[in-house]
Amino acid sequence: MMIKYQNRDQQLIDDAINIVKLGKNLLLKGPTGTGKTRLSENISDSLSAKQYSVNCSVDLDAESLLGFKTIETIDGVQQIVFIDGPVIKAMKEGAILYIDEINMAKPEVLPILNSVLDYRRKLTNPFNNEVVIAQKGFNVIAAINEGYVGTMPMNEALVNRFVAIELKYIDGETLKQVLIDQSILTDEQDIEKMIKLNELLIKMVSQHQISEEVASVRALIDACDLMTIMPFERAIERALVSKLETDREKEAIRQLFELI
């Protein structure tokens, strides 16, 4: 389902779609929970394009991106075959490749994508020497969480291959529509409570009182669902507070209950 955005946010999603339509690689920048993955899905839906995803981590290697060799029995004979990975599948099918948290990948892994991300849209697979040329419609959307634990600065040559859009936390009417669309909570007063909580969480994040992942839309949706079977305070405790590591952050959020 396409999220209904307010004017400012609708302009953002329109720009994102048009950037991809132009054949530009799109970099989505923003903290956890600002809807980067959802926006990527919306773009693919709008363009009626299939999407392949890569979730980056320090363990990401070339095989995770391009694929791997394996042994299969074909007509009774064992043969070595190559299983295409998400990058090659997206290129061959003219699909969208979504690279999540691209700045968590080791710097030495990503240069393999340089020729894929520039005007060449081409790759020589080092595992089988196949030359892969991207089909029409292929494009790349990547997402980064700047300053997040485990991330590394992106190489300048890599950044220059993207057009960037910065996402902020959603709030107000936009958040209300998301909670209505994506949670099972229907009580309007409870939804307003959650919007107020989100407003206070974002303020605390900006003041560096709590970590940014606390103000996640995913966590708010979980809390809304839990509110259908338990009181507000307990729902927040289960969906947000209990996941935190420091007592200081936990107590800071518990104190918000009185304000709400």
TrEMBL record:
MF terms from GO for this chain are: ATP binding; ATP hydrolysis activity
Keywords from UniProt, A to Z, are: ATP-binding, Nucleotide-binding
Q: Which Pfam families match?
A: AAA_5, CbbQ_C
What name appears for this protein in its UniProt entry?
Answer: MoxR-like ATPase
Superkingdom, natural source: Bacteria
Q: Which residues cross the membrane?
A: none
The residue ranges of the AAA+ ATPase domain are 22-171
Cited Gene3D superfamilies: P-loop containing nucleotide triphosphate hydrolases
Q: Which PANTHER family is this protein grouped with?
A: MAGNESIUM-CHELATASE SUBUNIT CHLD (PTHR42759:SF1), MOXR FAMILY PROTEIN (PTHR42759)
SUPFAM superfamilies linked: P-loop containing nucleoside triphosphate hydrolases
Concerning its family, UniProt says: Belongs to the CbbQ/NirQ/NorQ/GpvN family.
